[in-house]
Each structure stands twice: as C-alpha cells, then as structure tokens.
Design brief:
Length: 77
C-alpha cells in the first residue's frame, strides 16, 4: 500500500553557500582537486567553478546538489 508523505515532513538539506567567483578557472587549466562544474556556456572558452573538492569528486558540495537529485521517499512496506 502506498503512503502519502506531506512536503512538510520532508526536511530540507542544510544550505550550502555558493563558492566565490574568485575561484573560477578556465576548464583547460583546472587541476585535479577543483570543481569541474562549468559556469555559463560549455565551449572552448569554458570556465569551471574551481572550488576545492574532496575525495576525488568532480564537483564541490554546492554543485553536487544541483547535478544530483535527492532521493525521494519510497513506499513503506
């Protein structure tokens, strides 16, 4: 049986501040431990976020929340 979940019952994740625009770097010059989220149009002059990342991730915590959709509550069994 499906169970309804009210939106008020779903807690919002803790807000994460957007990284500073001062960290942005050209994509071609981005290093191994910086966010690769492309700001603006993806072309040959692409600029990425450049914020530090951990554990070999491709995106910082702020941009991971944009790229990945949070899991929806499932059915209770």
């Amino acid at each position: 049986m499906n169970q309804l979940v009210r939106m008020s019952q779903i807690s919002e994740a803790d807000p994460i501040a957007e990284p500073s625009s001062k960290l942005r770097v050209p994509f071609a010059q981005s290093g191994a431990f910086v966010c690769k989220f492309i700001i603006g149009e993806p072309n040959d002059q692409a600029v990425c976020c450049g914020a530090p990342v951990a554990d070999g991730k491709s995106w910082c915590a702020f941009h991971r929340r944009i790229v990945f959709e949070p899991a929806r509550p499932g059915r209770l069994r």
